[in-house]
Design brief:
- The protein is α/β, with parallel strands linked by helices and 625 residues long.
- The protein folds into four domains: 4-236, Thiamin diphosphate (ThDP)-binding fold, Pyr/PP domains (Rossmann fold), CATH 3.40.50; 241-360, Rossmann fold (3-Layer(aba) Sandwich), CATH 3.40.50; 380-555, 3-Layer(aba) Sandwich (Rossmann fold); 562-620, Alpha-Beta Plaits.
- The chain is built from 20 helices and 23 strands.
- The strands form six sheets. Strands 3-2-4-5-7-6-12 form a seven-stranded mixed sheet.
- Helix 16 (447-463) links the parallel strand 16 (441-446) and strand 17.
- The structure holds thiamine diphosphate (TPP).
- Thiamine diphosphate binds next to helix 5 and helix 16.
Length: 625
Amino acid sequence: MKKLGDVLLRKEPFSEIVMGNTALVRGMVEAHTRVASSYPGSPTPEIATAIQSIPREKRPFYFEFSTNEKVATEVAYGAAVNGHLSTVFFKSVGLNVAADTFVQLNHMNIIGGMVVVLGDDPGANSSQNEQDNRHIARLSYTPVFEPANPEEVYQYYMEAARFSREMHMPVILRLTTHVCHAKQRVSFGPWNDPGFDPTPRFDPGNGPYIPIAADVLPMKKRALERLETVAAYSVTSPLNRTIDNGNKKRGVITIGLPFLSLMDVLGQAVEKPDILKLGIVYPLPRNLVKQFLEMHENVKILEELDDVVEKDIKALAFDEKISTTLIGKMDMDDWVGEYTPDKVAGIMAKTWPDMVPEKQAPSADFRVPARPPQMCPGCGHRSAFHAVKKALKDTDITVADIGCHTLGYLPPYESGRLLMCMGASPGIASGLALFNDSRKVIAFLGDSTFFHAGIPGIINALFNKHNITLILMENGTTAMTGHQDHAASGRNFNEPTDKIPVRQVLEGLGIKHIFETDTYLQGKLTELVKEAVAIDEFAVVMARHPCMLKFMREQRKKTGFRERRVNIDPEKCQKIHDCVAVFACPTFIRRADGGVEINTDLCIGDGSCIQTCPVKAIAPAEEGK
Ligand SMILES: Cc1ncc(C[n+]2csc(CCOP(=O)(O)OP(=O)(O)O)c2C)c(N)n1
């Protein structure tokens, strides 16, 4: 089998079954993208995985994981005004971090072109909300292209890149979780690398690039004029297409994944509506939509999450005095969750019951067992929560942050009772510490998040003298999103680099109370947390150990590595069940007779559980047993 990296660099046209995220990378190669940047977040990290499959010396573009989405956007912008076609990609909520930079982009003359790939997450599969980033289009005067499947991801990226380069403006390519992760056979074009002129082309004469004073308003005017051009292009663009089923009574206007779900549902329909599938969702291709409305008596607008396109279409119908009956979300109350085929079947049956058979509930045979999130067997965060909990009172307030350690909120640990977004825990904890002499406040924070957005909250706590304890869980990697390296990992995406040591950063800030221990030394961690919490000043406890999952993967590659695991001595076990109920590593299975056994498929032999058994019934397994 050919390696993915070689496939992505084929010169001749080919077709291959690939994920949406992989199709995007071939688009980047073919479009001659020169710079790409990102901060990891689902559903987009596999874009970087595909990039990584191309050996660095063969990679026709530069890629980096930046410290956060705002910086990633700035890197891509800087490269683009130097003449290089660039791309930045990140998850839905990443846009909130990038927004301060992102909203100015359209005021600039981006001579190289810049595609902003947003991975939205309807259904909140792996996000703290299901925000609909199409709203940013209006705020920032930025066009939005939205593909529905991997083939379109590739095609739309190419078109977004071409358009952005010609128009010198940013274009949003909005993906959603199942468009990123779906697989499809995609036909790719040829790749002719014309060579690359690396001359830096930044010229202030191409500006203005300084949006202040008298320049701001002309820059805004230019952004609006560009939008007019996109609107005109959008009417003829092949990205918008009509499926004519000869139905003059009923039509559906739809976008992205809901389009695919609709096609599934219509397989069983008695009658098929005409369909207008929008590939450019902002600005609305007004003439195209106008014609479609005028040709049909009833039009259903089928869009996931918010009524972004619906509002535009209703305004258009009002302006143009079109009397077509419009059926949208207002009539359906369907604002939450992904538009899966099942859901769309329900919506269409409600819209036109005579057209689509009543929605069929999925048969019980097809239900998959629920798999609630949990920390991995041997996870250092479990060890840390187990230890930290022993140091705290029930009345203390614990604040979670984003990462694998968020899962500490789950029973039995129940550590981290509030969560907001990356880097928010020191700030929220500081607020909770105000007018509060009776309940100690403890914030948790991961190390990737420390660099991403945690540092400002820490500086604030120090500077404004907030009485909180921060527990910094340093595992050397961005674990939750797939072990991407960060500033303290000793590697960037491309090469080894000097570690930026978290401890020295904290010391450099002048934090007086810094405690540190190995995450797995539970007794010591408990004592240090007690000591830190007793200080009525900002204090930090660092719980450090490489992420065990990553560490064990590396160990297994070494020659002579021997698998280890633990055993339970049935003679010693008194069925106290701390291992199952308090430490709660999924490796332990409580039998019907009250005894406990080890799931040998799960146990990775880190041995952190050995400390948790009050009667010392857990011990390293002897070799071969
Ligand atoms: C603004 C934003 N960007 C990206 C993400 C995706 N994300 C979720 S958890 C996480 C990793 C956090 O890493 P770290 O702080 O080191 O904690 P760990 O998972 O290693 O415990 C990331 C990047 C997000 N939720 N929000």
